[in-house]
Write a structure and sequence with these properties.
Helices cover 64% and strands 0% of the residues. By secondary structure, the chain is mostly helical. The radius of gyration is 12 Å and the shape is globular.
């Protein structure tokens, strides 16, 4: 299973999605804007679904900032992204 396969799985967990995105797109993705991430996923043949983008942006927030430790809204958004698997009926 390659990184694209992992990212195409609607049931992929947040941490696995982030690791696969790093393998596919490179370690600098932590600094990318959401639209750049979306464009590069499409360029690599991975559909940037709402669920996948929520997971990747949640992981990016954890990796790039510490806002989740003091901002309730950020923590809540991260928790929703983690629960995306439930919404996707995995």
């Amino acid at each position: 299973m390659n990184a694209s396969d992992v990212l195409n799985d609607a049931c992929v967990e947040v941490s696995m999605a982030w690791r696969a995105a790093e393998q596919l797109l490179g370690p600098t993705i932590a600094a990318w804007e959401p639209e750049t991430l979306r464009i590069e996923l499409e360029r690599h043949g991975v559909p940037p679904t709402d669920t996948l983008m929520a997971k990747l942006l949640a992981a990016q927030t954890i990796v790039a900032t510490c806002a989740w430790t003091y901002d309730h809204d950020v923590l809540f958004a991260f928790a929703l992204a983690c629960e995306a698997m439930v919404f996707a009926r995995c």
